[in-house]
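Extended Data, record ABC transporter substrate-binding protein
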Amino acid sequence: MRPNLIPAATAAALTFALAACGSGPATEQSAEAGSRYPLTVQNCGEDVTIEAEPEAALTIGHSAVALLDAAGASDRIIARSGEFEAPLPEGLQNPPDDIEVIDQADPAAEAIIGTGADIVVGYGLFTAAPEALEAAGIPNLIVAGECNHDEAVVEAIGFESVFADIERYGEVFGTQDAAAASIEGFQAELSELEAQAPAQTQTAASVYYWSSSSSMSAHGGLSMANDLLERASLENVYAAEQSAYFEANFETLLDADPQVIVLSYGGYGESFEDAKAKLLSEPGATDLQAVQHDRIIGVSATDVNPDQGALRGLATLIEGATA
């Protein structure tokens, strides 16, 4: 989670084909009989070759930790980073609580190489030069839902992308059975949740703040949050925005005046009460119908990320939408 957060895919059947954002499973294997490596996978639309089974992973952000845990590979994590003081997501099977966080923000190449990691999994490199890692022979796998972090370079992200990402990491780390079991369980949970969604659609906006001093941001039509809203029978007023995350002028929220406001919190360690107070301090906030009718749903930032934690986010939205 890069100060979060944390995509609009329709509820199509999961195919496990390669997603355009590079979330698909491994697609090429070594010509050597009986050998899985070198293994080439799609990574944000480009090929990345894994020369040997990774044994030491450095994660950047919460989604990397969550997805490796779902794939049965969290025991390979030797260092963490990019978590911005926020706690690990809930519900991990094997949480790497005792693994050092080398940098709460974006790690430099020297720090990554110094950990002895043989692979990086996360939201991407913002401080480290990709060439430095390439020279050190360290592949960098980006979480599918973060391929469009700063610009719309891929199509919308949703639960199908998350499940395909888990399968991809299972292939890379040789933990396919564990990954398949996780996917099966998550698919069943998703089906149960969707059956509970209200029949009537309401308009909604999913918003958040990067920091205590930042202006309001929102989740656009390519975000994981957009997929959650759709499945919870909430129509995203920012769905036309062809991006996952963007800085939204508060005036746009006033103009849209959604029936429900979904407020993500905890991206920089703040509580829901803190985030709500900041939202309500915006000029004109009390004119919003969602404020007047107390229709502000708080969702942890880790629960709108492009990983299995979004199932908790969906459950929260459905509960809030039916209250």
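Summary. Residues 1-34 have pLDDT under 50 and may be disordered.
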